[in-house]
From TrEMBL:
The keyword Cytoplasm does not apply. Residues 295-349 are annotated as: Disordered. One of its GO terms (biological process) is transcription initiation at RNA polymerase II promoter. It is found in: Nucleus. Residues 295-306 have a biased composition (Acidic residues). It comes from Zapornia atra. It holds the Pfam family TFIID_NTD2. PANTHER family: TRANSCRIPTION INITIATION FACTOR TFIID, TRANSCRIPTION INITIATION FACTOR TFIID SUBUNIT 5. The TFIID basal transcription factor complex plays a major role in the initiation of RNA polymerase II (Pol II)-dependent transcription. TFIID recognizes and binds promoters with or without a TATA box via its subunit TBP, a TATA-box-binding protein, and promotes assembly of the pre-initiation complex (PIC). The TFIID complex consists of TBP and TBP-associated factors (TAFs), including TAF1, TAF2, TAF3, TAF4, TAF5, TAF6, TAF7, TAF8, TAF9, TAF10, TAF11, TAF12 and TAF13. The TFIID complex structure can be divided into 3 modules TFIID-A, TFIID-B, and TFIID-C. One of its GO terms (molecular function) is RNA polymerase II general transcription initiation factor activity. Belongs to the WD repeat TAF5 family. GO terms for cellular component: transcription factor TFIID complex. Residues 120-248 form the TFIID subunit TAF5 NTD2 domain. This is Transcription initiation factor TFIID subunit 5.
Length: 711
């Protein structure tokens, strides 16, 4: 209105801000001292420039300083006055920011300017929010589902803004009025939020700090976005528009709006969905070519089979060829993309053994389900917190809450340590069975206990060659143990907080760890410092897994996302969202193309790594899924849960006929078949044992493990 305009112009003149005064005059089409323009002409100034308008306030009415921010607004606007902040419109295409403020009849300059202050009138927040809510709920069905995604991030940001600006009672009433409208999968976050009632509380809360600094991603079709933008600008609802501009990243796609089911499948993580760009990078998901070497021709096979996976140490006969010479997989990374350790003779022997076992492997399928052998830890009053089984299924390790690591032999062959140095010097090093002779029979036992950690052990992992064992603990360290001497070789210190998981690379030498400090680290056994630090998750990294080709690492987190990282350069190449709770298990399919993930929401989600898409959802479990494993040829996916069951799923059927056309990849219109029941091949209950680990032997027998719980 004219009075306001005059006041602003006078203020600018008094402050010697002639340039700005001129700009404003030109905008308002007021030349010289003729101040005959009106607010209407101001508001309809040329597009591409931020328009400033003010509504004439009545006595005690609210004056919402309308700030139409039009994309592409360039040039400098009014420089910052003392009371109100004006930001440069050239930066983000957003213009002046403002909110409402109560003004008396005579417009006071400072009151007018503070209308454009960062925070709006606290008493109006509820009105803004309910206005938007009403608009969205009354919009067409096709837009409603997409625009409803705005409710949660806006609710959080408006609440945090009220708390931050110390309007505690308004914040409380805002929370109480609208928290019930949010989706059920945000309940845990809302519980954290409800405890933040003072500005001081916000300082220490990392999750909420992240929420303020990282942009919440919403994927919305262009039509829905235009509708929203038009509404906010017509209503001059700047407070909400500012939050949209500042704290949300709206990933706009061209095409049909997504349905409620399509959106529900993908949302639920701490920072919204993944930007589509995040899943565009090329991923080499193929397998590396197996090295070629001679396989001994073996007439007396039975003799070599005394226990599973422990070959008799005899020299291979040289006259044979049995190498599986596969052609290079077109999707595989170059063989030397990352340096991998050389194969030792013992590794070659083990590969030979593996091939022989594979020849006797059972072909699984819906008609031929695996037998399941369940290892129950009885009287585990120390609190079983982690389990791993060697690839050849000869040893099993448990990590316990009393900080011990216990290794058992599950074959008749006992665990033995190497002899002392004095005894070793007496051995004839040329003899054929030197590997047997160095072992000290006096130390043979079924169980070895490893002491060293000073807190619960949350993750354990055997090296592929069975010479080493990793364990990670609440004490912030990862320890490497020798399985020759059953002593600790190294303690890796890098995490300052509990380490939740660790795993050896399928080729040995490298290993990964993830913890409460929200990063995953890549290590090599001979380096004290990590080689790579993978940072990006917004909450604890709860589980880690190597891709079968060792070039990538998947991490699952309490921020409800799964990320895939490139070992070569440390980049994040995939972000998968869709789980509604922290992720606790990951499994790659043996061919490297797919990833299965399990979480506290009781769902198993299936992902196509190459296209970066969710391709399936397996529902059935009623509690957290702690174990996932594909059978050796990838026909069956086994899942183990806190609900005391092991479930088997038809992986072949789940991954066939995938619709991964370019359109789906571009827009994320995923249509998940509701076929969990068709894919479920069997459910196996334990008496009262949560399933912590699953492992397929080389012949496809399924081993499961957990500790019996009496309650």
């Amino acid at each position: 209105d004219r009075q306001t305009l005059v006041a602003v112009l006078q203020f600018l003149r008094r402050s010697n801000l002639r340039e700005s005064e001129e700009i404003l005059r030109r905008e308002a089409r007021l030349l010289g001292d003729d101040l005959g323009g009106s607010a209407a002409t101001v508001a309809s100034s040329s597009p591409g420039v931020a328009a400033v308008a003010a509504v004439p306030p009545g006595k005690g009415e609210t004056c919402t300083g309308a700030v139409g921010s039009l994309p592409g607004a360039g040039g400098r606007l009014l420089p910052a006055g003392r009371q109100g902040t004006f930001r440069d419109a050239g930066s983000q295409g957003s213009a002046l920011v403002g909110g409402g403020v109560v003004v008396e009849d005579q417009p006071d300059v400072s009151a007018v300017l503070s209308a454009y202050n960062q925070q709006g009138d606290p008493t109006l927040y509820e009105e803004y929010y309910s206005g938007l809510k009403h608009f969205i709920e009354c919009s067409l069905d096709c837009h409603r589902a997409e625009l409803s995604q705005l409710f949660y991030p806006l609710f959080v940001h408006m609440y945090l803004e009220l708390v931050y600006n110390q309007h505690e009672s308004e914040a409380k009433s805002f929370f109480e009025r609208f928290h019930g409208d949010q989706e059920c999968y945000y309940q845990d976050d809302l519980r954290v939020l409800s405890s933040l009632t003072k500005k001081e509380h916000m300082k220490g809360n990392e999750t909420m700090l992240d929420f303020r600094t990282s942009k919440f991603v919403l994927r919305i079709s262009r039509d829905s976005y235009q509708l929203l933008k038009r509404h906010l600008q017509e209503k001059q609802n700047n407070q909400i528009w500012n939050i949209v501009q500042e704290h949300l990243y709206i990933d706009i796609f061209d095409g049909m709006p997504r349905s409620k089911q399509q959106i529900d499948a993908m949302v639920g993580s701490l920072a919204g969905e993944a930007k589509r760009e995040a899943n565009k990078a090329k991923v080499f998901f193929g397998l590396l070519k197996e090295p070629e070497f001679d396989v001994p021709l073996d007439d007396e096979d039975e003799e070599g089979e005394n226990e599973e996976g422990k070959p008799k140490k005899k020299k291979p006969k040289k006259d044979s060829v049995g190498s599986k010479s596969k052609k290079q997989d077109p999707n595989a990374p170059p063989q030397n993309r990352i340096p991998l350790p050389e194969l030792k003779d013992s590794d070659k022997l083990d590969k030979v053994m593996n091939m022989k076992e594979a020849a006797r492997r059972v072909r699984l399928g819906p008609e031929c389900l695996p037998s399941i052998c369940f290892y129950t830890f009885l009287n585990a009053y120390q609190g079983l917190t982690a389990v791993d089984i060697t690839d050849d299924s000869s040893m099993i390790v448990g990590g316990f809450a009393d900080s011990t690591v216990r290794v058992w032999s599950v074959t008749p062959k006992k665990l033995r340590s190497v002899k002392t140095a004095a005894d070793l010097s007496l051995i004839d090093k040329e003899s054929d069975d030197v590997l047997e002779r160095i072992m000290d029979e006096k130390t043979a036992s079924e169980l070895k206990i490893l002491y060293g950690h000073s807190g619960p052990v949350y993750g354990t992992s055997f090296s592929p060659d069975r010479n080493y064992l990793l364990s990670c603990s609440e004490d912030g360290t990862v320890r490497l143990w020798s399985l020759q001497t059953f002593t600790c070789l190294v303690g890796y210190k890098g995490h300052n907080y509990p380490v939740w998981d660790t795993q050896f690379s399928p080729y040995g030498y490298y290993f990964v760890s993830g913890g409460h400090d929200r990063v995953a680290r890549l290590w090599a056994t001979d380096h004290y410092q990590p080689l790579r630090i993978f940072a990006g998750h917004l909450a604890d990294v709860t589980c880690t897994r190597f891709h079968p080709n060792s070039n990538y690492i998947a991490t699952g987190s309490a921020d409800r996302t799964v990320r895939l990282w490139d070992v070569l350069n440390g980049n994040c190449v995939r972000i998968f969202t869709g789980h509604k709770g922290p992720i606790h298990s990951l499994a790659f399919s043996p061919n490297g193309r797919f990833l299965a993930t399990g979480a506290t929401d009781g769902r198993v989600l299936l992902w196509d790594i190459g296209h970066g898409l969710m391709v399936g959802e397996l529902k059935g479990h009623t509690d957290t899924i702690y174990a996932l494993r594909f059978s050796r040829d990838g026909e069956i996916l086994a899942s183990g849960s806190m609900d005391n069951t092991v479930r088997l799923w038809d992986a072949v059927k789940a991954f066939e006929d995938l619709e991964t056309d370019d359109f789906t990849t571009a827009t994320g219109h995923i249509n998940l078949p509701e076929n969990s029941q068709d894919l479920l091949l069997g459910t196996y209950m334990t008496k009262s044992t949560p399933v912590v680990h699953l492992h397929f032997t080389r012949r496809n027998l399924l081993l499961a493990a957990g500790a019996y719980s009496s309650q």
